[in-house]
Design brief:
The chain is built from 20 helices and 14 strands. 32% of the residues are buried.
C-alpha cells in the first residue's frame, strides 16, 4: 500500500470518528492511543542525536494533531448527548482527579487549573515553539547556499570526492526540508491548542443550555428588550447548579485530556529545533575518555579558512578562480618537490575578520593574510620606476613592500614596474610558499609508504634491497633523511638516486646526518640546476677557513658559537648575501663536506633563504664563480 492510500485511509477514519457516535469503551481506547502516540513522539525526539534524523517528525505531528481533533469532537458529542449518564472512564477518571468530590470549591479549583494549563500552552509553550521553529527554518534556508558553496569548494580543491559531496548536499537539502516542514507543523499545533479551548467552552455552554432547556423541572426566565429582542439571561438557580456539577467536571476532564497531548507534541517540537545536539551518546564520559577521543580525532593535513567576505572566491557561480589555481598548484608542487600534496579543505570561519584568510597544517596555523576584494596587490620587486598612491602593506608570501590599489590603477602599476596580483593569485602564491617551506611536515610515514609502494611497481629490487633487514635502514630513518632534504628545499622526486645512495653508504654509517649528506651528493646535478644561472654558473660565497673551523668545532662541542662570534658571523653573512642578491643572484655559501651542515644549521634561524652547498655537491657540468668571501674580525 503506497503513501496515497494511507492518506486516504486516514481521512476516512477521521471523518468516521467525527460523524459516527462512538461507544464510551472505544472512545477510551482512542484517547489512550492519542496520549500514547504523543508520548512516543516526545521520547523519539529526546533520544535522537540529530533532530533531522527523525525525518518523520513533521508528519507525525500533523497526524497526531488531526487524530486528536477527531477524538476531541467525538468526546464532546458523547458528553453533550449523555450528560450525567456519560460513562467514559478516561474522562471520568481525570475529572474525578481534578475536582474530587464535586463541591463548588473543588469545581472552581479544577477550573482554575484547567485555565492555567491552557494559558501555559497558548502563551508560553505554543508561542515559543512556533517562534523557535520559524527562526530555525529561516536561518537554515538562508545558510543553505553558503554551505553548498563550501561543499563545492572542498570538492573542487580535492578534499572530498563526488560521492561525498553529493551525500553532503543531500543531507543539507533534507535538513532544510525538515525545518521547513516542521515550521508548517508548528502552525497546526498552535491552532489545535486554540481549538481545544474552544471545544471546552462549547462543551460547558452547550451542556448547561441542554440541562436548562430539557431538564424537566426547570424553566427559563425571559427578559423582553424594548426593541423586541429576547435574550435568555437568567436560569433557575437549582438547575444551573446541577448543570455545573454535571458538565464542569466533564469539561475539565476533556480539557485536560485534549491539552495534555498537545503539550507533549509542542515540547517535542521545541526540543527538536532548539536543543544542542550531542556528538556522542547521552552517557557520562570520563575525562580520560574525552582525552582519548580528542587524540584520535583526525586533523586535516592542509586547510584554508576564509572570512565571510572571501567566500565569493570559492563560489562557482562567480568563477571560483582560486579552486582551479589550487588544483594546478598542488599538481605543480607534487611534480617539483616529489611529494603528493594532500587535499586542501576549504572552510568558512566566522571567527576570522571579514577579509582574512588562514592556512593551517594539521590544525596548526602556518600563515594568514588579508585580502581587499575588487582590489589589486602591487608588489615592489625593487626596480619600480615611480611612486604609486594606495594603501601600503606587505606581500603575505614573501614580505615584500606592496600597495593595495583599485582596478583603475592596475595599468599604471604595471607600467611603473610593479608586480600586480589579484586576490586568487595572492592566496595561491601564499599557499605555495607555505607548502614549500613546510613540505617536510606534510610527509609522514603513511605518505612515505605510498611513495615506496609506487616506486616498488617499477623498481621492486631497489625498494626490497633498501628495506631488507640486513641493510641497516629503517623506514623511520629514510623518513628522517627525506625530511632533511625537504627542509632545505631539495626535491625528493628522484627517489631512485636517493635510495641507491642510502643502500651504498648505509654499511659505512647509520648516522642520519651522514646519509643525508650522501643523498644530497647523489642529487648534485639536480641541486646545481636549481641554483645556477642560464650558463650553468654558480655564483658562490666562500668562508674564511678559520671561521668555518670555528663553526665546525662549535657544532661538535656545544652546538652553538659564543654569542659575540655568532653575532659577527650573522652580520657578515647578511651583508654578503645582500650584495649577491642586489646583483640578481641566489646567495650561496660553498664550504667543505664536513662544514656544510654545521654552517647551514648556524644560520637557519636568521637567514633561511641562504643556500649552503658542499664541494661534493657541485656537478661536473657546472662552473663555480666566487663572488665574495665571508670573514669576521674577532
Amino acid at each position: 500500500m503506497n503513501t496515497g492510500k494511507y492518506a486516504l485511509l486516514g481521512i476516512i477514519v477521521f471523518v468516521l470518528i467525527i460523524i459516527i457516535p462512538l461507544p464510551a469503551l472505544l472512545l477510551d481506547i482512542l484517547i489512550a492511543m492519542n496520549l500514547a502516540f504523543a508520548l512516543l513522539i516526545l521520547l523519539n525526539v529526546l533520544y535522537t542525536k540529530k533532530p533531522s534524523d527523525f525525518s518523520l517528525l513533521p508528519t507525525c505531528l500533523l497526524v497526531s494533531t488531526v487524530f486528536s481533533t477527531a477524538v476531541i469532537i467525538s468526546s464532546a458529542r458523547l458528553i453533550l448527548t449523555k450528560g450525567a449518564a456519560f460513562d467514559g472512564r478516561m474522562i471520568r477518571a481525570v475529572s474525578n482527579l481534578m475536582v474530587g468530590s464535586g463541591e463548588i470549591v473543588s469545581l472552581i479549583v479544577g477550573s482554575v487549573v484547567l485555565i492555567a494549563l491552557a494559558a501555559v500552552k497558548i502563551l508560553i509553550v505554543s508561542k515559543g515553539a512556533v517562534r523557535v521553529s520559524e527562526v530555525a527554518a529561516r536561518f537554515t534556508l538562508e545558510s543553505l547556499p553558503t554551505k553548498q558553496m563550501a561543499i563545492d569548494a572542498e570538492y573542487s580543491s580535492g578534499a572530498i570526492d563526488q560521492e561525498e559531496a553529493s551525500a553532503r548536499k543531500e543531507a543539507l537539502q533534507r535538513e532544510s526540508d525538515f525545518h521547513g516542514a516542521l515550521d508548517g507543523a508548528s502552525k497546526f499545533l498552535s491552532g489545535n491548542a486554540k481549538f481545544c479551548i474552544f471545544i471546552v467552552i462549547i462543551c460547558f455552554l452547550g451542556g448547561t443550555l441542554i440541562a436548562n432547556m430539557f431538564g424537566g423541572e426547570t424553566f427559563m426566565d425571559v427578559v423582553i428588550i424594548p426593541e423586541g429582542i429576547r435574550l435568555d439571561l437568567l436560569f433557575c438557580s437549582e438547575a444551573f447548579i446541577d448543570a455545573m456539577k454535571t458538565y464542569i467536571p466533564l469539561t475539565i476532564g476533556i480539557g485536560v485530556l485534549s491539552l495534555l497531548p498537545v503539550h507533549l507534541l509542542s515540547i517535542a517540537m521545541g526540543i527538536a529545533v532548539s536543543r544542542t545536539v550531542a556528538s556522542g551518546d547521552h552517557k557520562k564520559i570520563t575525562e580520560d575518555e574525552n582525552v582519548d577521543a580528542l587524540q584520535m580525532q583526525a586533523l586535516d593535513p592542509l586547510s584554508l579558512e576564509l572570512g565571510f567576505g572571501l567566500i565569493p572566491l570559492v563560489d562557482k557561480d562567480k568563477g571560483a578562480e582560486i579552486l582551479e589555481r589550487m588544483q594546478n598548484m598542488r599538481r605543480e608542487i607534487a611534480i617539483d618537490m616529489g611529494i603528493a600534496i594532500p587535499k586542501i579543505r576549504i572552510i568558512d570561519n566566522m571567527l576570522l575578520g571579514i577579509s582574512e584568510y588562514c592556512f593551517k597544517i594539521r590544525g596548526t596555523e602556518a600563515g594568514r593574510g588579508t585580502i581587499r576584494m575588487d582590489s589589486y596587490l602591487c608588489i615592489d620587486p625593487g626596480e619600480v620606476k615611480g611612486e604609486l598612491s594606495g594603501e601600503k602593506t606587505k606581500d603575505p608570501a614573501f614580505g615584500l613592500p606592496a600597495i593595495w590599489v583599485g582596478k583603475e590603477k592596475r595599468d599604471e602599476a604595471e607600467r611603473l614596474g610593479y608586480t600586480v596580483a589579484d586576490p586568487p593569485s595572492i592566496i595561491a602564491t601564499h599557499l605555495t610558499e607555505i607548502i614549500r617551506r613546510n613540505a617536510a611536515d606534510l610527509l609522514g610515514l603513511q605518505e612515505l609508504k605510498k611513495i615506496l609502494d609506487t616506486l616498488h611497481e617499477d623498481h621492486p629490487f631497489l625498494v626490497d634491497e633498501a628495506l631488507k633487514e640486513d641493510s641497516g635502514l629503517k623506514v623511520v630513518d629514510i623518513l628522517s633523511i627525506l625530511h632533511g632534504l625537504l627542509k632545505e628545499g631539495v626535491s625528493i622526486r628522484n627517489m631512485v638516486s636517493i635510495l641507491e645512495s642510502l643502500i651504498k653508504h648505509a654499511p659505512v654509517s647509520k648516522d642520519v646526518r651522514f646519509l643525508t649528506e650522501k643523498a644530497r651528493q647523489a642529487l648534485a646535478n639536480q641541486i646545481c640546476h636549481e641554483y645556477a644561472d642560464a650558463d650553468k654558473v654558480l655564483h658562490v660565497l666562500t668562508l674564511e677557513p678559520s671561521l668555518e673551523e670555528k663553526i665546525i668545532d662549535s657544532n661538535h662541542e656545544k652546538s652553538y658559537l659564543d654569542p659575540p662570534v655568532q653575532k659577527l658571523w650573522m652580520d657578515a653573512a647578511s651583508k654578503a648575501a645582500r650584495k649577491v642578491m642586489d646583483k640578481g643572484w641566489q646567495p650561496i655559501i660553498l664550504c667543505t663536506e664536513t662544514g656544510r651542515f654545521p654552517v647551514k644549521n648556524s644560520i637557519e634561524g636568521v637567514l633561511p633563504e641562504l643556500v649552503v652547498l658542499s664541494l661534493r655537491e657541485i656537478a661536473p657540468d657546472f662552473t663555480v664563480e666566487a663572488v665574495g668571501r665571508i670573514s669576521i674580525e674577532h
